[in-house]
Design brief:
The protein is α+β, with helices and mostly antiparallel strands. It has 22 helices and 23 strands. It is found in: Nucleus.
């Protein structure tokens, strides 16, 4: 009888859910079981309004079948950090407890462009017996709140334990002292955390979050990572304001695991929480204010790379060195323990000699729960493709680690000093770049900047259209530093933002993110609001196991290099169609790669729809106002020197991208220039950018380095030569004769 009642409850619940306007389930496939009861059946393509509705649907289905579910892995966008995919798994997935069987059953939903969540993958087979189906019990993700805490915005009274760091201007919390002295605990009846919640001290914030976690059924720790953990994304971050109070500025409540039973509220925080952290670990930890928030700094550095990774990588490095004499690797050893790792093969080192002027430090592992902290150095080749310039495993995200990695890269690349670098904006990375590459322009990673911008301004931008318009106009339309400063100051005053710590920091670092300041530096045309496509792409995922890492890594590398070879072939063997009789177009077609010529050709064709008006002359320098016909809003100023044919435009396209803009080309037309000066056709964009004699032998390093790079270059050219020569018998005979003649000529050289 109880079984029948539960069945009716399930049917009643699902009838309500499928009829409700908020259900978000557009289509359900059903069938009847042996008892004639209707049952909802998940299938690929099923749509939901939210991920929570997908979870609720899967829970109902699981209850009908006779198993339980829990939240699995979540995946975040590499652009803005938002959740784009969720997995819901059988509760017996994995082997973390004795009751689990490693069950493979799951569903995965992903967010599509419409904002809906679509069921993309499903595995229905289980490896265990089912329980009796019963009453619906949604997985425990939230518990009842025990009261509320009012936000600082409302001027409410705030809980308060006197802060010991009120007298500590450095923002350091003495963990050792905290552990020994705080033994009184804290009441467990607390509300839920939220952005804007204030505390008088970091200690108080820790106690609050501990109490909240205890009531919910999970445990907390201070934010350092370890490879054995499952990558749960839930956290609370606090930031100290100038008033001395600590405010919750970042918060994620979603977990990817089951909750435990709530902890006993009579047990004090100090006696339980610090046992969980481990006294041996806490003795070596400091909480330090970094990058606007509270971060953990270890007095004794530890590696987040598993010991088995070092063994596997060293075997791989030795085998590669045996076949590639230009292969470089370095391992940092600290107190007898392995720390950071860096490596680069001869091809990456040779590529850096041609394309090392702009580098991107790709730390995609920071945007997901990756099993290994793999980072790559990327450049931009002459086809505007990402090119690998080295790899690293980052033991810990400290300034010491990043400094060592940048120094190792510089040694491998024979002292290369890039013009610019795109990397995350963490203080540790900023300081390391300033130390190792003091004259390199550091630009913030777009994904991280946009994520931080959304955290700090998301509500204001969405709720106040006027502010959004003025904010974007300040950033994207300012033509000079004075214009930007004036617009920025107006925003700070009008919207009362002068005391905002985030705005103060962003203004101080404006040269690392404001387009006006970025466009004056060469970034190989990488868009201001974007970056290079990750080199590993979908080959390396957060779940890539140790035994597959090297195989997948080499597969990704080879795929990119094959794509580069295809573009090389096209550039040398195909010709783009000319659209004008301008000799400059023919000149550039002859020199540029196919991809770069298309970009140049677009600018050349566009310049015909512009007019140029001379506005003043100072000696040999004439200035022109160049604007689009019929569009007076688009104006740029071009300076042209008649004595040496130097040209510069206020749009800064050549400085940023290395290709002359339509405005400069219009002035060349006015001045009847029939051939571009060679300095305006960068060698790095030419067909011959990566072939032939090394352009700067003195910067190539020692004799061994030079020989390795020359060997790689000759072998790469010989490989292409052999493929062409073996196409037919006639070509083979010609190729063989040319090789013999070439060898005879080499013998005559000293």
């Amino acid at each position: 009888a109880d079984h029948d009642v539960n069945r009716k409850k399930v049917r009643s619940f699902m009838n309500v859910r499928t009829q409700a306007s908020v259900a978000g389930i557009s289509k359900v496939i059903g069938y009847k079981d042996d008892e004639g009861e209707s049952r909802m059946e998940p299938h690929v393509g099923l749509e939901f309004d939210t991920a929570e509705e997908a979870q609720e649907f899967y829970n109902v289905y699981a209850t009908q079948v006779g198993f339980k579910i829990r939240i699995g892995q979540l995946y975040r966008s590499r652009v803005d950090g938002s959740v784009i995919s969720r997995r819901f798994v059988c509760s017996k997935e994995g082997f973390q407890t004795n009751s689990r069987t490693g069950c493979p059953a799951f569903i995965r939903v992903q967010r599509v462009e419409t904002g809906k969540w679509v069921l993309a993958n499903i595995k229905k087979e289980h490896n265990h017996e089912f329980e009796g189906s019963g009453e619906i019990c949604p997985p425990r993700t939230q518990k009842k709140s025990f009261g509320t805490l009012k936000s600082s915005a409302g001027g409410a009274s705030r809980t308060g334990i006197r802060s010991r760091e009120d007298d500590n201007s450095a923002g350091v919390v003495d963990i050792k002292r905290f552990k020994k002295e705080d033994t009184d605990g804290v009441p467990m009846a607390v509300g839920e955390p939220y952005k804007g919640l204030e505390f008088t001290s970091a200690d108080e914030a820790y106690k609050f979050y501990y109490a909240y976690a205890a009531g919910m059924g999970f445990r907390i720790r201070i934010g350092h990572q370890h490879p054995s953990r499952n990558g749960c994304g839930a956290y609370m971050r606090i930031q100290r304001h100038e008033s001395g109070r600590w405010v919750v500025d970042r918060l994620e409540k979603e977990h990817n695991h089951d909750f435990e039973a709530p902890l006993d509220p009579t047990v004090s925080i100090s006696s339980r929480a610090f046992k969980e952290e481990g006294s041996a670990v806490l003795e070596n930890l400091d909480l330090v204010e970094t990058n606007g928030g509270l971060s953990l700094v270890k007095r004794v550095r530890e590696s987040s790379i598993g010991d088995d990774w070092y063994t596997m990588l060293l075997d791989y490095f030795q085998s590669r060195q045996a076949e590639d004499m230009g292969f470089f690797y370095a391992v940092e050893v600290r107190d007898g323990k392995g720390m950071n790792v860096f490596w680069a093969d001869s091809r990456s080192r040779f590529s850096c000699s041609q394309f090392g002027d702009v580098i991107v430090l790709d730390t995609a592992y920071r945007r997901g729960s990756y099993t290994v902290p793999f980072a790559s150095f990327l450049g931009v080749n002459h086809h505007r493709q990402p090119v690998l310039l080295g790899c690293a495993l980052i033991a810990d995200e400290t300034e010491e680690s990043f400094t060592w990695i940048f120094q190792a890269w510089s040694r491998a690349m024979s002292g290369c000093r890039p013009v610019s670098i795109i990397a995350d904006q963490d203080v540790a990375i900023q300081n390391s770049i300033a130390q190792v590459f003091p004259r390199t322009h550091h630009r913030f990673s777009a994904w991280q900047f946009f994520a931080k911008e959304q955290e700090n301004l998301g509500l204001l931008l969405s709720m106040n259209p006027e502010f959004k318009y003025e904010y974007e106009a300040c950033i994207f339309q300012s033509q000079t530093s004075s214009e930007f400063d004036s617009a920025w100051n107006m925003l700070m005053s009008k919207y009362n933002l002068r005391e905002s710590a985030w705005f103060k920091e962003m203004y101080r670092m404006r040269k690392s993110w404001v387009p006006l300041h970025i466009k004056g530096t060469f970034f190989a045309g990488i868009p201001v609001d974007g970056s290079l496509k990750s080199f590993s792409g979908n080959t390396l995922t957060p779940q890539t196991p140790l035994d597959e890492f090297i195989i997948r890594f080499e597969k990704a590398v080879e795929q990119h290099r094959e794509d580069e070879r295809k573009e090389d072939f096209n550039s040398f063997n195909l010709q783009a169609v000319l659209h004008t009789k301008d000799p400059i177009e023919e000149q550039c077609r002859r020199l540029y790669t196919m991809e770069m010529f298309k970009i140049f050709q677009k600018e050349l064709l566009e310049c015909y729809s512009y007019v140029g008006i001379k506005i003043n002359v100072e000696g040999t320098i004439s200035r022109y106002l160049v604007q689009k016909c019929g569009n007076g809003d688009e104006r740029n100023t071009v300076a042209f020197n008649t004595s040496n044919l130097n040209v510069s435009c206020s749009c800064k396209m050549f400085e940023f991208e290395g290709i002359l803009c339509r405005h400069a080309l219009k002035v060349f037309q006015i001045m009847n220039i029939r051939e571009l000066p060679s300095r305006y056709i960068l060698h790095r964009w030419s067909k011959n950018a990566k072939y032939g004699i090394l352009r700067d032998m003195e910067s190539a390093g020692g004799l061994q380095d030079i020989k390795a790079l020359m060997l790689w270059s000759l072998r790469e050219e010989a490989r292409s030569y052999i493929e062409a020569g073996a196409a037919s018998l006639e070509r083979y005979k010609l190729a063989f004769e040319i090789m013999q003649e070439g060898r005879r000529n080499l013998c005559w050289q000293n």
